[in-house]
């Protein structure tokens, strides 16, 4: 935070007072250095503005007002300037250049600006024209979802690097509610992904310049930026005194290994996004996984429907590019939703969903059983046992499936209380035998 103290004198005794040594006392603060032109830098409390209200002789009364944080711009800047995390609670205190003895201290007492020989409160400073102006120093903003893997990675990096709690603003975006597809978020990140770190350009931090921002939306780039922006040697841009270990590998060899590991976990079969949708080993775990995935997909789909509807009714105005993006995401989400909805159903619920593929499989299987010496009246276990024996002695189909409860009593050795694993073809055989079409075509005869 920057506080600019400008002192202007109009009378000779005021110039004399300006040349005297002044100190600005507050609570706990290390000694500070002064630059040749810009004054002093210190960390401290919220920004304020002091303006004169009245004067009497050598005394002037002042008003002190706190300033609130300005909202984050909705669009990212264009110039490709270097990006750095801002000195979020650092402020430059400028005084009259003629008052060379000016120094700054921190204490927990109310703010006092005083002469070393005679303590003068802010309301009795012997200047007839004094103003304190301020600028809200921009902070980095992290858009994240606490339940998503790469948002957690960035938060881990912030903690490992020792950033202070007041150095980054956190904005939660609920992916399960499709908040990442909202127009204002897409202006920050057109891909609609998380996490996203919005950082101000270093050369736009001074009070006289309007702050500009850049959006960093790649997790790897965000972590690397956080690693570079704070080190054991750079205390200027942080309010924290925690250690700042270097996270990047120290050698080229280790850098290559590190990059390979990062690439593997972010893409391909190991991608957390892919694993989220494919986290099932069998039909039982697939039904369990669907209970987690289905609410997520429905929330996204509902949000996209709402955004498209609002755009159609002119409640919100978006570009054709954004509309196309929404439609593509909606189609992909609906496809996943259909797949997961079927996966979430028990086998018994799917028995009536007889498809074209089933017609071919049933006719083919019945023919094989007949060639193997089986009968259309055999139960599944007997029919498949005859098929295995006919193929070659010792051949066995994997027995890794369990019949639905409605079918348990018709399967050999299987009861509701004691299900027995069977070959999938055995379960299919018992299932299709109950269908009206089977009974009409095969009539229960060999």
Automatic annotation (TrEMBL):
- Which residue intervals define the domain GST N-terminal in the entry? 138-234
Q: Which InterPro entries match?
A: Glutathione_S-Trfase_N (IPR004045), Thioredoxin-like_sf (IPR036249)
Concerning CDD domains, the annotation shows:
GST_N_family (cd00570)
Q: What is this protein called?
A: GST N-terminal domain-containing protein
Region described as Disordered: 66-110
- List, as start-end ranges, the regions of compositional bias called Pro residues: 74-85
Q: Tell me the organism.
A: Bondarzewia mesenterica
- Source taxon at top rank: Eukaryota
- Please list the coiled coil stretches: none
